[in-house]
Amino acid sequence: EVKEVRFAKQYGLSYLPLIVMEQQKLVEKHAKAAGLGQLKASYATLGSGAAMNDALLSGSIDYASGGVAPMLTIWGKSRGEVRGVAALDTIPIYLNSVNPSVKGVKDLSDKDKIALPAVKVSIQAVLLQMAAAKAFGANEYDRLDRLTVSMKHPDAMAAILSGRSEVTGHLASPPFMFQELKDKRVRTVVNSYDVLGGPHTFDLVWATKKFHDENPKTYRAVLAALDEAVAYIGKNKRAAAELYLKASGSKEPISEVYEILSRQPVHYTTTPLKVSAFADFMNRTGSLKEKPKGWKDLFFPEIHGKKGS
Amino acid sequence: MEQSDTIALAPAAQVLAQRAPGPVVVEVEAARPLSPAERLWNVAALRKLLLLSLLLALWQVYAVTLDKPLLFPTLDDTLAALWNGILHGELLGRVGHSLRTLVTGYAIGATLAALLAVAAYSTRFGNDLMEILTATFNPLPPIALLPVSLIWFGLGQASIVFVLVHAVLWPMALNAHTGFTGITPTIRMVGRNYGLTGWRFAWRILFPAAFPQLLTGLKIGWAFGWRSLIAAELVYGVSSGSGGIGWFIYENKNQLETASVFAGLLTIILIGLAVENLLFAGIERRTVLRWGMKH
Amino acid sequence: MEQSDTIALAPAAQVLAQRAPGPVVVEVEAARPLSPAERLWNVAALRKLLLLSLLLALWQVYAVTLDKPLLFPTLDDTLAALWNGILHGELLGRVGHSLRTLVTGYAIGATLAALLAVAAYSTRFGNDLMEILTATFNPLPPIALLPVSLIWFGLGQASIVFVLVHAVLWPMALNAHTGFTGITPTIRMVGRNYGLTGWRFAWRILFPAAFPQLLTGLKIGWAFGWRSLIAAELVYGVSSGSGGIGWFIYENKNQLETASVFAGLLTIILIGLAVENLLFAGIERRTVLRWGMKH
Amino acid sequence: MASSKGTSAEAPLLEVRGVTLQYTTREQRVTATWRVDFDAWAGERLVLLGPSGCGKSTLLKAVGGYLKPVEGEVQFRGKQVHGPGPDRGMVFQEFDQLLPWKTVKQNVAFALQEGRGVPRREAEEQALHFIAKVKLSRFADAYPHTLSGGMKQRVAIARCLATRPELILMDEPFAALDALTRQQMQDELLELWQESPFAMLFVTHSIDEAVRLGHRVILLSPHPGRVKEVLALDGKGELGPVQSGAELQERIHRSLFETACDYSI
Amino acid sequence: MASSKGTSAEAPLLEVRGVTLQYTTREQRVTATWRVDFDAWAGERLVLLGPSGCGKSTLLKAVGGYLKPVEGEVQFRGKQVHGPGPDRGMVFQEFDQLLPWKTVKQNVAFALQEGRGVPRREAEEQALHFIAKVKLSRFADAYPHTLSGGMKQRVAIARCLATRPELILMDEPFAALDALTRQQMQDELLELWQESPFAMLFVTHSIDEAVRLGHRVILLSPHPGRVKEVLALDGKGELGPVQSGAELQERIHRSLFETACDYSI
Ligand SMILES: Nc1ncnc2c1ncn2[C@@H]1O[C@H](COP(=O)(O)OP(=O)(O)OP(=O)(O)O)[C@@H](O)[C@H]1O
Ligand SMILES: Nc1ncnc2c1ncn2[C@@H]1O[C@H](COP(=O)(O)OP(=O)(O)OP(=O)(O)O)[C@@H](O)[C@H]1O
Ligand SMILES: [Mg+2]
Ligand SMILES: [Mg+2]
């Protein structure tokens, strides 16, 4: 068993469970309870899912966290040597548009450039393909790809709100989508929950099989800590919001954070939802070579008891 | 440096005022210190301050006209954010953190560049090596170094320093090399005449004789260090609780605190101006300008 | 350039073999062309090829030892991916796309750098302006330019070219400036003697006299152009379907196609080596080396 | 041939009036020459003689237009000199005055093309002609860095003469030449002058050379340089109109040697 | 005082044996000197005379160890010369031989510190002493770029003499000096030699200077340089042991002038 367990999170509210774990020293607590003694937990912040996978592969961290796409990719590439530990949250992705004539996917034309974090490879891009497949038929899944442009969320938001660029749409995640919707011109054209037929996991945590196998007690302690963190958020939204602001040094008003946390579609849970739907779709379009035999194939057994999908 | 057709000469008035008939007084006149006013006018910083204000005014006017605070904040918003960041926020701490990293990487990079350039100057093998290494690694973006740096240094400062070294090493080495190879044979022979070889030769002859180019390398390295530091902090992220100015910019960008983003950038600019005008300009005044190696 | 203590002289054997008693033959001997073998040995490319192979071998050995193909692929995997990318994939198209953008930005940047440096050399105002602008903008990361470039150029190539210009302009201008200010007063006076002023003076005197530094600026600019191009393609609006080698790398990186990522990087390196050894080395041979301005 | 006595009815070609020249360095101001006055008439060959560091090169640069006087003025053809120009060709004292990126031939041709607007082909022909005059035809395609010190100076001389300026400014051009070459160069110079007389300001340290080349000799005093004496010669390398041979040599020598003061503190 | 006739029982200090020197440029190989032979004995003052471009500077650089002969060898104190060293102090022909980042005093002191290991304080004292000898005390703290051509050369002379090398190599050191300064420098040189004799290889174009300074004069033929004649003088500026005064001058002159061939094509 290791003496120190290293986590990496990314920037943003969707990593709140990890922030709570860090702030409340939950891993240390559960490790002690499991008889592991003084386990040290350290948390780094990385800029992207790709950096996350590099860090995990190089052995710089034990637990990576991020979106569904990088997790599925490394699962496929490592042939199961890397698997999901648990989900962090279910959060929808909205396609927000400022073009008044766009009411649905079918209304999108060449004049509507859609910003997303990375064309083709991001989960947002996959989602747009899913929406296209649903609207135009399975073979037409890439029909909207030519409209997409890569932009970081804040830049994309600034671009559509400024109304000066050819970008009129943004496949956004919180808090950006909510902030955008405060502007009267902005409407949601696509909601990922509709596309997938229900809530789906947005971010999750993954680790290597080697770590999982060699540190069973630590692994379980971490999972327990994660569960507690998620539960804590569910029960103490305001306190969680405070923890977030304290940890991130963000200048947002607490009411805003609290509001997002309390919003209906945002939910923190360790249960993976619709991950296999993403995997199957990506496998069909060729961006994921391996095909999982179900969601349990993607995750370590400790989470198999949950009602995942 | 300026008015290249005529060498700057003092106004005639002063001389006329001190007319003296005899050659003895002329001898005294032959060499006298400059007046304080003339010295002041030579302080480029004062002239530049004016130019800088102009640029800032332009920014303000453009930002106000544009009226898109999310994209391009006004100067006063930015200054307010800067002030706020200094007073209440952690801006200064962040800057300190970044500066430490930067200076570390910069120092290592400069040292390696000097070693490489001296090796390239001294031996044919060194020369080939330097040419291959520079051509190979110089165009590589930091992202290419991510895997190896993670393997070698893990997450955190060490990796960022590694990226910084990569950013500054090659341009500095190239400039040093140009400097060394441009030294006139006579000066090199003079150095050899005193039996100077190896590092003593490099230190006593090559470095001062190539000083203008070394300085340029240092300036370019400094700027590219900043650029890469900020980019690296975004990719490599930060360990818990720390994080430099790059991370400050990234965070504020994500919070759409555009004024704070620009405050971060303005901080970098201000540091850059200070370094340029206090450090580099001071060095230039004491070295290449005084030595007549810059005209 | 090498063995700085003695100027390279030909081996004695050749001379001894052609001994001739009379002064008439001596006159003929006084200047004769080099033998083909000697010329060949002067081709640095051959020597460097060896060194390069060594580096590649090192890569292979390290990668095999490390055995983390997803992080650091072996050379043969990379070559396979490269071959694959060329045959079936779009690698060449991507490279072509990037090269076009790069050359555009590079050309604009070089031109602006030349203008700025000449202005800085000719007038005190230009000098102050250049010092302010370089100190201000050079340390700014491309990310800082995003807002204005979006406003001015929108998405796509134009913005990337803008970032490229920013990347290459300042180091080139700094190097040109060092070159210009380092020209000996005598050469400048000679140029003035023929009545050369303004652009004619810059073109006929400043540029050739500062050629070693200009070349260094071009080299550094070239490398930083690549770096920034790749970074810019990630940060800036790459529209789906378009995108150059930077996007190729990013895409493959996200799909953990590490061998392809390295194939992309290797492509850049190969282009860099070609440019360095064919273009720049060729220019050097025909200019500064022949003119005795590089030793 | 123009009068060498400065009594011609026309105005002099060059008028140097109370010219004081100073160098302003960071810490000091150094006065190089102090109220120097002299004229040069069209076709007149003037020689400047003076101790090392007395400001001869500085004075030449002021006439060339490279330096502005802090006091007094330099008039060329009745107009104040504002900058350099091809009408006043200069041979500098330094060995690095050739453009290193041009061959010997190109250096000379370039001066003709740029300074005199001669078309390229013609410029090259004339260049070769003058290169032959300085005995460097074999080195026409050599780059300057492969030449010896004396050879470099000869190229500079050829370059200056080729452009046929109205006023030639020469700063110790023959100092690096051996006795024979020097004599040949002097002959060439005089021959060219015979073909079409030009005015000349010639700095030398050789009294023989001064006598051989000059219509008049201007003697400068040491640092800062002032005009000490002006001696008239006959301009044919023989006696001056007033002096006898030995007496003249003697006089220059004495004049230079007596003004010399010890610089050491 | 060492013998000036080269008949001493010991071996010569410097032996130049069949030295051929060539420059290899990108396109050509230029032979500068061709099988040059001569010796210099300890304390002997040798003067090199020869036409411009005949290889005098090149020869001096070979003796200094900056160039390797392609044929023959240079031996100093019985050992082959492999590189430069402070035992062979050199004054170069070029004006850019002072280190521009050091003042006049520092330039001289640096040579003493680095070349001779003299401690800093002492080096500066000695430096000032030698700077006074070349009459530049007032410019001790000036940087080289503010000096005139002749002043720069005097600093270089002071720097070389201050390190008291066994063999002094001087490449036209006085060419940029006026007659008086030149004479003073010659006097200083001879005086120093009297104090402790050194060997010297002195390049000049002035026959007077050669006669004044040399024990022997080596006459070189034009390009490529070969030894044409070696003349013995008395080393006191008077007649040589064999020749009468006028005859000697005449002989040198004739020797130099007759070998001169026209370079032009
Ligand atoms: N660039 C400069 N900056 C400052 N002082 C200078 C500069 N050039 C020359 N001087 C000073 O001006 C004075 C005159 O110099 P100048 O070169 O005109 O002398 P010169 O008569 O040509 O001497 P020489 O015969 O040795 O060439 C000297 O005292 C010198 O120190
Ligand atoms: N760096 C070089 N590269 C090629 N050739 C050279 C180089 N230096 C000198 N030469 C050639 O070597 C020959 C001898 O040059 P050197 O400088 O030794 O002559 P010198 O006798 O000192 O002449 P001067 O009296 O003019 O100084 C000349 O023909 C010259 O062209
Ligand atoms: Mg002078
Ligand atoms: Mg010479």
The largest inter-chain interface, given as chain pair and residues per side, is: B-C, 84 and 84 residues
Number of domains of chain D: 1
Name the helicity range of chain A.
40-55%
Largest sheet of chain A, in brief, is: 5 strands, mixed
Unreliable residue stretches of chain A: none
- CATH homologous superfamily label of chain D: P-loop containing nucleotide triphosphate hydrolases
Give the strand order, joined by hyphens, for the main sheet of chain A.
8-7-9-6-10
Cα separation of the termini of chain A: 31 Å
Strand segment count of chain A: 12
Ligands bound, unique? adenosine-5'-triphosphate, magnesium ion
- Name the strands of the widest sheet of chain D in spatial order: 6-7-8-3-9-10
Give the C-level CATH assignment of chain D. Alpha Beta
Largest sheet of chain D: 6 strands, mixed
Radius of gyration of chain A: 19 Å
Overall radius of gyration of chain D? 18 Å
- Shape call of chain D: globular
The oligomerization state is heteropentamer
Total count of helical runs of at least 4 residues of chain D? 7
CATH topology of chain D, which one?
Answer: Rossmann fold
Derived from helix and strand composition plus strand pairing, the structural class of chain A reads alpha/beta
Overall mean confidence score, pLDDT of chain D:
85
